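Can't paste images in this forum, so I'm doing it all in text. The chain is below; anyone willing to post the predicted structure tokens underneath?
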Amino acid sequence: MMGWLLFVILVDVPPERVPWTPLPATEAARREALTRFGLGRWRAREERPASAAKEFEAAAKADPDSPGPLRPLVAVYAELGRHAAAIRTARKVLELDPDDADTAHKLGQILYEGRKYADAVTVLKQAASSPRLERAPAIRIGILRDLAR
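Text version of the structure:
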């Protein structure tokens, strides 16, 4: 009985009205980028790389200073066979985040497949010397194996 009384009291209280205010432009752009990034990840999991690429591109356009949406875009471009776009995007990611070993490794693999061996060696050395791999020796060994090729 006491529970019902408490429920009736809580339900009868009108909610406090808060006036609506528009979001600042930076916050709206960040939310748009997060939404597009999530859609891109979803499309990539559904094995729809063309749709995923469009969503990641929209996320990168909404938040151009973040390397986050560009990272998976490199793999999607490589999967679609757009190697020039993958190389360009990976270089931009490494410009924004020089310690990103995963992107540098992927770029080195793409350059190696494109027979640009000198560039591949430079990028793979950068990937192997990343401080983020201090706790991931298996990944560093994989990068060094690709470098030895």
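DSSP finds eight helices and no strands in the chain. The mean pLDDT is 91.
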